[in-house]
């Protein structure tokens, strides 16, 4: 039946057959399949079946579509990872409330959707990741290494720490899924290339220089005394927002610093031994086995594959070189060339049947064939280690250090708890709580959002200080963790709303602003007059500048991107159109110090490719190739999304 559907995958006949097939399911399907994303999901990605790529998306034919769900937990986990990364990059400038915007959430969700699209495409392409490739990838992760080599203890420790602890088996599945997802985009990214002509054009553009003549108009002195009352009044009316008193607060706050607490007393021998007995399992190294394998893919003839694996196992038991058998017969590309070597393996890394067989073997034994989803395996156990516990004396210093940290954290947490409990008894006063906890009450202000200093400039504390709730109620804030072992609580003691400053109060500032504007316009007028004098092409910039009492500065062979005569000015010069033969291109620009200038672009010289060092040429070519490859990968995802169906439930974000 399926073959017939493949042969006739379009037209009303195929559609009718599918509809008839779906009728019995009307009475057994879950309502979530009839449309929508589902109660616990934020998005669903659906792809047509690989054997009917033109299948319509309407129900009930849509039930044949392959589906991938993005759960609320998936989204929250990824969003938290992105949040932690942003916090680390931005430091004190990180604003949690701004980060929680719907725009940011959609960006994270779109990334997850793209990943599901690529995953479905990989399934359609029949991509499978072997055990050896997973093990090799895990062993190369720096976080799991010590002295540049994979360390099983470090591996387990790293998995148990962080925001989401994982078992080795769960991490194995995550790596396998990630590698599978990365195959197509990685291949496309590596396929990028740049032609020699494109690279040469870029080198010429990057190395381009320009000959420029620059006539700078000196600043005109701002004459505040010449500013009239009418100008002041008009300027104040037009620019009132520039002369407002910003919102200000005064606060009282307390800081809890773990580093300022008395150091804890070192634990005695009995306490350390008790801790060791309670946590002895931590210090038992898991059993590890160094193994090699030969994989025979089952294909369409499962019996033949099993027979071949059986024959190879018998040859190995008879003394044949196992490594040579693996090189000649194994279908695992990750281990074949190394004679089937898998390295050190512990429980939870390999698939169940493979792992059960491996850990039931004796050193030097040949086992197999062992059947898994990947085919039939012939195993060889080469060496074992682990399973022994470390004695107390070997881990005593580690336990002592851990106990000191735990005691210090306990003392800090106890102080924090006492302070919070006292605040809850009187939430509109911070002084009694500070006195009861024995910490200093500090005060600051008035200050605005723009002139907060020190710890009060921290984004979270700044947001709390100007929050409507704390201002209106006068209550103490929740504890804010600035850093591990550093917590702050504050209360707004006074508040002054934003207000317009009376003209009489800011009259001098307004007059200065008017005078500065008049001076700036006077400079610009001189530049415009200079430009008009050379516009007909009969007068050179040097002659026009000389008549105006200005000097001309020549900037020959000016490179692109240098801060000469200024960063923005350099960009303006390189945006100007190349001059015609014997006719300069003129333009105006403003320098970083506020002065205005007129420039004449007289020549443009392309970069000499031969002068670009070979290493730099190669690096730029590789960067261009990477850009081209990345564009190809992005285009692939966009193209796949056009053929897939994506449903999003924003209310679950």
From TrEMBL:
It is found in: Cell inner membrane. Its main location: membrane. The keyword Transferase does not apply. It is a single-pass type II membrane protein. InterPro entries: PPIase_dom_sf, PPIase_PpiC, PPIase_PpiC_CS, PpiD_chaperone, Trigger_fact/SurA_dom_sf. It holds the Pfam family Rotamase_3. One of its GO terms (molecular function) is peptidyl-prolyl cis-trans isomerase activity. Residues 286-383 form the PpiC domain. The chain crosses the membrane at residues 12-34. Keywords: Cell inner membrane, Cell membrane, Chaperone, Isomerase, Membrane, Rotamase, Transmembrane, Transmembrane helix. It comes from the Bacteria. GO terms for cellular component: plasma membrane. Belongs to the PpiD chaperone family. This is Periplasmic chaperone PpiD. It comes from Stenotrophomonas ginsengisoli. The lineage of its organism: Bacteria, Pseudomonadati, Pseudomonadota, Gammaproteobacteria, Lysobacterales.
């Amino acid at each position: 039946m399926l073959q017939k559907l493949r042969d006739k995958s379009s037209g009303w006949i195929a559609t009718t057959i599918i509809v008839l097939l779906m009728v019995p399911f009307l009475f057994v399907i879950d309502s979530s399949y009839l449309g929508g994303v589902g109660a616990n999901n934020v998005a669903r990605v659906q792809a047509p079946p690989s054997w009917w790529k033109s299948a319509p998306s309407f129900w009930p034919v849509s039930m044949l579509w392959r589906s991938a769900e993005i759960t609320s937990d998936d989204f929250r986990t990824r969003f938290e990872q992105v949040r932690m990364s942003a916090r680390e990059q931005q430091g004190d400038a990180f604003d949690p409330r701004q980060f929680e915007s719907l725009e940011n959430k959609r960006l994270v969700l779109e990334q997850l959707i793209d990943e599901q699209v690529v995953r479905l495409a990989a399934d359609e392409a029949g991509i499978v990741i072997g055990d050896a490739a997973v093990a090799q990838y895990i062993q190369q992760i720096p976080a799991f290494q010590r002295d540049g080599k994979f360390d099983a203890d470090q591996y387990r420790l790293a998995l148990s720490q962080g925001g989401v602890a994982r078992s080795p088996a769960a991490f194995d599945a995550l790596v396998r899924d990630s590698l599978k997802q990365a195959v197509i985009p990685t291949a496309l990214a590596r396929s990028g290339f740049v032609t020699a002509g494109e690279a040469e054009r870029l080198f010429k553009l990057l190395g381009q220089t320009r000959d420029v003549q620059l006539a700078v108009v000196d600043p005109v002195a701002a004459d505040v005394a010449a500013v009239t009352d009418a100008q002041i009044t008009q300027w104040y009316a037009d620019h009132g927002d520039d002369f407002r008193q910003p919102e200000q607060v005064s606060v009282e706050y307390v800081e809890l610093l773990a580093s300022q607490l008395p150091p804890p007393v070192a634990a005695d021998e009995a306490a350390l031994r008790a801790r060791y007995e309670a946590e002895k399992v931590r210090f038992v190294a898991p059993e590890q086995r160094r193994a090699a394998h030969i994989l025979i893919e089952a294909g369409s003839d499962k019996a033949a594959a099993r027979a071949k694996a059986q024959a190879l196992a018998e040859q190995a038991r008879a003394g044949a070189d196992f490594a040579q058998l693996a090189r000649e017969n194994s279908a695992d590309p990750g281990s074949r060339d190394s004679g089937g070597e898998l390295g050190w393996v512990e429980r939870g890394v390999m698939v169940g049947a493979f792992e059960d067989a491996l850990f039931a073997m004796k050193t030097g034994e040949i086992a197999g064939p062992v059947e898994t989803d990947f085919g039939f395996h012939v195993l060889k156990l080469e060496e074992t280690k682990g399973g022994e516990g470390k004695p107390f004396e070997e881990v005593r210093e580690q336990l002592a250090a851990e106990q000191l940290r735990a005691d210090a954290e306990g003392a800090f947490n106890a102080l924090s708890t006492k302070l919070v409990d006292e605040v809850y008894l009187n939430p509109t006063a911070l002084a009694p709580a500070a006195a009861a906890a024995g910490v200093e009450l500090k005060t600051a202000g008035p200050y605005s959002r723009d002139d907060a200093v020190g710890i009060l400039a921290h984004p979270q504390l700044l947001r709390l200080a100007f929050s409507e709730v704390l201002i209106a109620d006068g209550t103490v804030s929740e504890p804010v963790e600035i850093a591990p072992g550093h917590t702050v609580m504050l209360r707004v003691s006074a508040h002054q709303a934003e207000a317009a400053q009376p003209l009489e109060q800011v009259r001098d500032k307004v007059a200065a602003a008017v005078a500065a504007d008049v001076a700036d316009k006077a400079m610009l007028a001189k530049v415009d007059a200079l430009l008009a004098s050379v516009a007909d092409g009969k007068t050179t910039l040097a002659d026009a500048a000389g008549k105006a009492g200005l000097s001309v500065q020549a900037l020959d062979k000016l490179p692109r991107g240098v801060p000469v005569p200024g960063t923005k000015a350099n960009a303006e010069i390189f945006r100007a159109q190349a001059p015609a033969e014997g006719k300069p291109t003129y333009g105006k620009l403003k320098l970083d110090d506020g002065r205005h200038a007129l420039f004449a672009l007289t020549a443009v010289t392309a970069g000499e490719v031969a002068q670009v060092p070979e290493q730099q040429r190669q690096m730029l070519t590789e960067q261009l190739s990477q850009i081209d490859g990345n564009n190809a990968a992005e285009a692939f995802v966009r193209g796949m999304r056009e053929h897939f169906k994506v449903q999003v439930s924003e209310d679950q974000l």
